[in-house]
Amino acid sequence: MREKIGYYGTLVCLLLSVISGQFLKSEWIPIILCIGVLIFAPMYRWNEWKAYSRKKKIVFSIEFVIIISTIPFLLLKGNEIIDGIVMFQGWLFIAKLLYLICI
């Protein structure tokens, strides 16, 4: 049950973050949703997490916090850069979709 809650909670937070980044101009909503990912993602791997050593847990925690906190800023900055490139004006949706897949 904990794994399902963690998986679907993470998925919903990430989808809402992407959707809100497209339609809302607030920079705080994706940050709040990433905090939700920080809560749900460890729930998904709870059984594996208990088997790791203390050193490995610390390294994984630091990596996780850095990655989750930088992804929304990469998405927001990438959207601004793609909007400014004249070549993508007719293909804006496809360019943003490819950018999301690459990130």
3D architecture notes:
The chain is mainly alpha-helical. The protein has one domain. It is 84% helix and 0% strand. It contains 5 helices and no strands. Helix 1 (2-23) runs antiparallel to helix 2 (28-44), helix 2 packs antiparallel against helix 4 (54-84) and helix 4 (54-84) packs antiparallel against helix 5 (92-102). Keywords: Membrane, Transmembrane, Transmembrane helix.
Descriptive terms for the model:
mainly alpha, membrane, YoqO-like protein, transmembrane helix, transmembrane
H/E element string?
Answer: HHHHH
Helix- and strand-based class? mainly alpha
Mean pLDDT across the residues is 79
- Share of β-strand residues: under 5%
Instruction: Specify Rg, calculated over alpha carbons.
Output: 16 Å
Q: From the structure provided, what is the oligomeric state, counting identical versus distinct chains?
A: single chain
Fold blueprint:
Blueprint (H helix, E strand, L loop, with lengths): L1 H22 L4 H17 L1 H6 L2 H31 L7 H11 L1
Keywords: Membrane, Transmembrane, Transmembrane helix
Protein name: YoqO-like protein
Kindly summarize this structure in a few lines.
InterPro entries: YoqO. The chain is an all-alpha fold and 103 residues long.
